[in-house]
Amino acid sequence: MSGYAHSCAWTSGTRLGHWYERAPHATQQPKEQLMELGLVGLGKMGGNMRERIRRAGHTVIGYDRNPDLADVHSLDELVGKLSGPRVVWVMVPAGAPTQSTIDELADLLEPGDVVVDGGNSRWTDDEKHAEELAAKGIGFVDCGVSGGVWGLENGYALMYGGDAENVARVQPVFDALKPEGTFGAVHAGKAGAGHFAKMVHNGIEYAMMQAYAEGWELLEKVDSVTDVREVFRSWQEGTVIRSWLLDLAVNALDEDEHLDRLKGFAQDSGEGRWTVEAAIDNAVPLPAITASLFARFSSRQEDSPQMKMIAALRNQFGGHAVEKK
Q1: Is 205 part of the annotated catalytic residue set?
Q2: Which of 87, 61, 83, 82 lies closest to 72, judged by CA?
Q3: With a threshold of 0.85, does the pTM exceed it?
Q4: What is the pLDDT of residues 221-252, one digit of tens each?
């Protein structure tokens, strides 16, 4: 498996909650707004994004280290097939893979081209990349992407940062990826703002999942509640805690009512830690998000019932791997 192509597994027949049912396919865009895009990294997110962008009528040339996924065999070939000025979207793991890809693109692209980092990079890396590319006349946009394995059909929430001129160059692709309607995409600010906003989004997600998991464990613990799954299902309509995550929790319980097949172990992808670090740097109290991060650490020390629910939710919305007994 490619370093760019993450492993994933999910059940295609999972029941969709009502939050999905109102989301149509990508809309075909007017011919004058169509563009070419180079896309680097065709794993579980990148591959679906390529398909959604193509459904909107754009031309996408994809590269991945896994030749079975790629349209071209190298970054050099990808750049050569794009008409200038080019836009290349990088969708690879944060850290060294992103750095090496941007370094290589910096040597291949020309002034006036734009690089988009759509992975989960730290916002401080975005600031560095924007500065490095600007020295060569190449624009940079960072984009936090949320939507997981459901994004192909329902659209991706996008949070992007960078100069207005560079954002405008990528706007047709943003429009193709976002959900239908008014919301779901935002120019959050300057370079780094997109990934910072996505980081905070993920921190909030940690806390929401932890709250559902704690409630689920308490309901499972008492003798008086005899059908916890149906309690969760009843909350899907008319309550103030209804949400997409709640729908996914019900999906997970439909597949494994007491989550007996899962081990109470949940990874953290990094954004939760960065959120807490940023809170410390800015003296902002984040007790719920911080506690939810520490709860994941505790899951690695014992078979935690709460972490079974967290693991199930991460698998439902993102196709993240779970550890089974």
Answers
A1: yes
A2: 61
A3: no
A4: 999 999 999 999 999 999 999 999 999 999 99
